Amino acid sequence: MPKKILLVEDEAIIALSEARVLKKHNFIVDTAFNGENAIELVKSDPEISLVLMDINLGKGMDGTEAAAGILRIRDIPIIFLTSHSEKQYVDRVEQISGYGYVLKNSGEFVLIESIRMAYKLFDASSKIKESEQKYRAAFMTSPDSININRFDGLYVEINEGFTSLTGFTREDVIGRLSSEIDIWAIPEDREKLINGLKQDGIVENLESVFRCRDGSLKTGLMSARLFSLHGEPHILSITRDISEKKEIEVQLKRSEHRFKAIFEQAADGILIGNVEGIITEANRNMTELTGYSREELVGRNIRVLFDQQEIADRPLSYRRVYAGETVQQERNIRKKDGTLVPVIMNSKKVDDDCLQAIFHDISSLRAAEESLMISEERLRMAVEGSRDGLWDWNLETNEAYHSDRFARMLGYDPDELPYTSEAWSELLHPEDREQAFKSVEDYLSGSENIYESVFRMRAKDGSYRWISGRGKAIFNAEGAPVRFVGFNMDISGQKLAEEKYRTIVHTMQDGFLLIDGNAHITDVNGAYCSLTGFSRAELLEMSIGDIDLLETGKDVHDHIHRIMESGGETFETIHRTAGNNSLFVEISATPLPNEKAFVVIVRDITGRKNEEQHLQSLVEEKDYLMKEFSHRAKNNLSMILSLIRLKSTTLENQVDLSDIERHIEAINILNTRLYRGNSFSSINLHAYLQEVLETVFSFSSFPIRIVNDVAEISMDHRRAIPIALLTNEIAINALKHGFGEEKDPSFTVQLTQDFSRGEYSLTLSNSGRPFPEDVDFNDTRSLGMQLIPAFVKQLQGSITLSRNPVPVFSITFPVV
Predict the structure, then answer these.
(1) DSSP label at residue 128
(2) pLDDT tens-digit map of 393-406
(3) Secondary structure letter of residue 266 according to DSSP
(4) By CB neighbour count within 10 A (0-12 exposed, 13-18 middle, 19+ buried), where does 295 fall?
(5) Which residues are CB-neighbours of 422 under 8 A, at least 6 positions away?
(6) DSSP string for 273-298
(7) pTM (2 d.p.)
């Protein structure tokens, strides 16, 4: 369809001539003879797609003023027509429009090509702006917090979700470091982020604690990746607030999209040359494009602008140009400073067999296309990498878009769900449809500040999935919603976990309480209600201080703080019942991760406490009886020992009864140690034998060194007594007959255990004389020698005697 051009020219003849040229090239032309008329025509005629504007319009409004007025009404390409090429005119034009100007005497070809280039430039610019609006809307309206930082933490960009999460506005953070606003409550979280990015370039589902503007703490689930912006590494972070919704356990992985389309406006360069390719004329824009002055270009071959490889790959098409064909090619020209500039080169034969080449700089277009491609890729990665399903609803056209994840979370292939709002409503559970619609209507009507709704949607297999929907609308100047963008999250697993939680809590036999950081009861099960006699409604109005009889007021809050700090505690206390009775209870308190609350399991131990008190009284009675028994046994042994000593005195030492005295002393020592020890059935053998030997050698007229190599083991008293008596007898024998004039006399006792044979080895030796050859264990002259094998037999063991060079008694007996 032909395009309509508005020609603004105060000279009627010139306007007629220019209109004829435009119509020749299939353009519809409307003419205005002054600026005011031009503005009115643009207002009233939406089909006008381009304006050719004379700069000098005579009296009244000039061309630049008219162009500024038109651009305030519509975004439309404007090309200026002028007879002037002075700098002041060019500067005025460049301030108004980026589509350049054409000298009135440049010829038909230049004019038409300039118009065509302007249309191409305007179309590309429109697409860039439309794409920028689309992606910026998605960025700014995302319900999650999105921010872009330099690697050192400097904030470059944030969205509204960041402000909603942290309370920090753009003015608070842009241009400041994260350390300046002290947003990382746990500095190690940022170290994990930076280390992960350095290692892998991406971090997913990093759970971090942030300090908000008001000093409060919030937990977020962060995903971040590195990308290059202006040649520097930057961090793109997406954070979802999970402080109050930690139970959803969403593993969020989203990559944020950010783009900035740069479209540098530039005028076209024009060269005139002869048949040999020698440049004969160059305009001002060409010198700016190449960096060469006019004098440096004129007289040189056009090949100076191209590399040899460029010419080899795409030769200059002189033959086609001389045949009357206009040749358009994309090329790279080499500027004076050596840099390459991509251009569209249009070549055509003009009068006098000259060649004309128009160079349109497409650097900004290429940069814009690349920026658009990167932006679209970022958005695609963010949407596809997220576990959520994106939806975008145009409320004016009722057209809808959804991401692949939106369909796949319900088991559908993306092409199985139509891109309409009806697709969503048809999949809603019948019981949830009315409330789901109401949530949307309340938000769009302004009754609610945020849109957040939970509902069920039918999956492909016929089952229903629990979905959490969150979104934000875009409103026009009149306050009417025109676009609605958001995300769907599958929370079926969380719903199942909630059901399991309710089942477990309300069927367990122990009492269950959920306590917040202020000690208030926020949940309770039936078992605790039955235990105390309070109703659920009554308990939910109480704090823990209302039912704990041992702690109230500040004690309760201090205890809660200790539980939170320690990670949990088990203790006993007393709870009040509805009848003002008391219950002994065992409390197991465990803090909930990342929440100012903890779970309390309450077990009734009243019966156990009563039993413990009864057992304690029995233990005290038994302890009294044992003390009395030990006291009487010790007195009886002391009486026997006293009688022996009296008898020995009466007989005037005619009979040696010291052996019997030492035996009784050994038994008395055992009795004392059993009474003082922790056990009435076993004794520390090392200490017992040490005391027995010290008692024996206390009657020596010279010091005897005791070498005690008995391990620190406990031995039952049935075997400890024969071991002690055996040791006592051999020590007495050494004291009476073994020691002579040797220096540093010693007596050694050693006990080792052979685990492989399951037996003990007891060795008794002294540093005295060799044992006599004529004395053995059957010697009737010595009662002590006859007692030794008797004690060994009681131990179910065996004994050997090494007589030289010193006496060594070796006894082995089983461990059990």
Answers:
(1) H
(2) 888 888 877 777 88
(3) -
(4) exposed
(5) none
(6) E-TT-BEEEE-HHHHHHHS--HHHHT
(7) 0.29
